[in-house]
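Deliverable D5.2: sample structural annotation.
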Amino acid sequence: MTQPLVSIVILNWNGRKFLEQFLPSVQASTWTNKNIVVIDNASTDDSIPFLQAHYPAVQIVRNSANFGFAQGYNEGLKAVKGDYYVLLNSDVEVTPGWIEPVIALMESDATIGACQPKLLQYENRHLFEYAGAAGGWLDYLGYPLARGRIFDLCEPDNGQYDQAAPIFWASGAAMFVKANVYHQLGGLDAFFFAHQEEIDFCWRLQLAGYQVYACPQSVVYHVGGGTLPKGNSRKVFLNFRNNLIMMAKNMPAGMATWKIAYRFLLDTVSAFKSLLEGEGKYFMAVFQAHTAFLGWLLFKQKRSIFPASKKGKLQGYLHKSVVCSHFIGGKKTFAEIVGNKS
């Protein structure tokens, strides 16, 4: 049988350093029927000349501007063929056989629309990586968590999450997705620009009747950024705003109303706590995010992608508060919080 065509697609913006460092590992992937693509978000460094000189076999798709993560992929993938897309961050080192176990798993079940490998830290390879770890979950108030990562605590990888399992969201740092499903769902929500767009996508994917899986038999190493620094107001703004938008889009209206109101309260507490700690930029970013969310709710909803259906079964969903479990209950690991549903 012919292998499915796997297109490994790296979104780049002024990332020549990472391309030089990590493209060799991608090229060394043992999956035969693959296509390596770099979508360039109008870089101003020498990324394109570098690729043309050193990687002539890599397909280059040029976007006309820096569209961010979500729209950058949406625009670029219009020109990319494949049975599977792998949305891969430029700062990820892959292992030679990382593709085979994921494709075998996805080919075994037509309902699996997206999947992620195990993500470990590039610098500390015994630790799970912040952006997805061994598979993302979501609590009932919209807070993301992951197998191997609770807030800013990343667990050592001792094989405790080595079984393939359904999850809520797959990390955008290394997300496998069936190409037809990606386009069927309209891709990532471009309004998000960046941050939490993969969680929203996987939420819509599940509501459409598909599953999201983690495949820890595949391992990659991510440089990443760890927890967001409170001084980085742009990232704080996008995370808080986008999290509220995805709740409003994907939850039943009645549920979304009270949960978002509660989140406003919790966010405000967090913002004032940061203000007392001297983090004025964080404080302002949270309130700007709330204002922007209300602006989206009143005037800009048509710019977003909504789920076609809300009937799909959600997996990887925590029916309690990770905030309470962690900060009040003192539970530090995913297994302690979730129990045996790992």
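Annotation notes: Residues 226-230 have pLDDT under 50 and may be disordered. The chain has two domains: 6-222, 233-311.
The annotation will be released with the project's public dataset once the embargo ends.
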